[in-house]
Write a structure and sequence with these properties.
This protein has about 270 residues and is α/β, with parallel strands linked by helices. Helix content is about 45%, strand content about 15%. Strand 2, helix 2 and strand 3 form a beta-alpha-beta unit. The structure holds acetoacetyl-coenzyme A. The site of acetoacetyl-coenzyme A (CAA) has 21 residues, from helix 3, strand 6 and helix 6.
Length: about 270
């Protein structure tokens, strides 16, 4: 009991959340700089809870996830996992906390600088878009420590890069530079390290100015493209499109176009 009380008294938050309600943007910073933001259980639980809360906050329309200049995240916490057995891993089921990231309805942009390795690369790929600094390095080096990707790497990297390149990355564990990642279509943009946050905020603001209902339904439809056959995906997209016609934002957006003025979206 005493141990739990002491632990909660001295528990340091492993993420930092900042809301910019005026711009409708929230920023989540991974905050374990001494461990290169290694993703331990506590950090992932905090991230899950923060994403859940921000997803329900009407004042937030776009979420940015970032680390620091040296590391977005260097993977799952090797020290925390090293002594575990299969049964422990199954019981803890640490990747179940990751399901919330995928479930996040609002657009989620990763701002990546430095290492995005293993779970860090998987975390960035689970986001909807990636803005990378020139120093960003992506990789799935799990093979070098006797395991393999476990939080989506074999699936998402293969979808992003194609089988040949993903296979090479996963089987050799080699890192990919930001430039290479851009050419391969893994990231949206690469900019100098000094401005990667600025560029991410610019993109977030651009999206936050749209109807939040439309962005949520459009994101959902784009994600379906990876999961279902074309016919089903087209049907899903059409339903979301029709659904938006019961929103005030659709009326406002189209009326503003006709009146040649900027729309004022309310998320209604
Ligand atoms: N887990 C735990 N601690 C980590 C870590 C990780 N994934 N990555 C870095 N650290 C710690 C280091 O142990 C070190 O701590 P100490 O100062 O206490 O020794 C500190 O962060 C700084 O790291 P380095 O001294 O190693 O820094 P470097 O600049 O020399 O090297 C690096 C950087 C190449 C990223 C190197 O740290 C590294 O190879 N890290 C591990 C990368 C990796 O294998 N990731 C995959 C993890 S498994 C996984 O993610 C499974 C999954 O699918 C989810």
């Amino acid at each position: 009991m005493l141990e739990i009380i002491l632990k909660s008294l001295f528990m340091i938050n492993m993420i930092k959340v900042t809301n910019n309600y005026q711009e409708h943007i929230a920023l989540i910073e991974l905050n374990r700089p001494n461990e290169l933001n290694a993703l331990n259980l506590q950090l992932m639980q905090e991230l899950r809870d923060a994403l859940k809360a921000l997803d329900q906050d009407d004042a937030v329309r776009v979420i940015i996830l970032t680390g620091n200049k040296k590391a977005f995240a260097a993977g799952a916490d090797i020290k925390e996992m090293s002594g575990k057995k299969s049964v422990d891993m199954l019981k803890i089921d640490q990747f179940s906390t990751w399901d919330q990231i995928k479930k996040t309805k609002k657009p989620l942009i990763a701002a990546v600088s430095g290492f995005a390795l293993g779970g860090g690369c998987e975390l960035a790929m689970t986001c909807d878009m990636i803005i990378a600094s020139e120093s960003a390095m992506f990789g799935q080096p799990e093979i070098k420590i006797g395991v393999m990707p476990g939080a989506g790497g074999t699936q998402r990297l293969t979808r992003a890069l194609g089988k040949a390149r993903a296979m090479e990355m996963v089987l050799t564990g080699r890192f990919m530079t930001a430039k290479e990642a851009l050419e391969a279509g893994l990231v949206n943009k690469v900019v100098p390290e000094e401005i990667y946050m600025q560029e991410t905020v610019r993109l977030a603001k651009e999206i936050a100015a749209m109807s939040p209902l439309a962005t949520v339904l459009a994101k959902e439809a784009v994600n379906r493209a990876h999961e279902v056959h074309l016919e089903e995906g087209l049907h899903f997209e059409r339903k979301n499109f029709y659904l938006l016609f019961s929103s005030e934002d659709q009326k406002e957006g189209m009326q503003a176009f006709i009146e040649k003025r900027k729309p004022r979206f309310k998320g209604k």
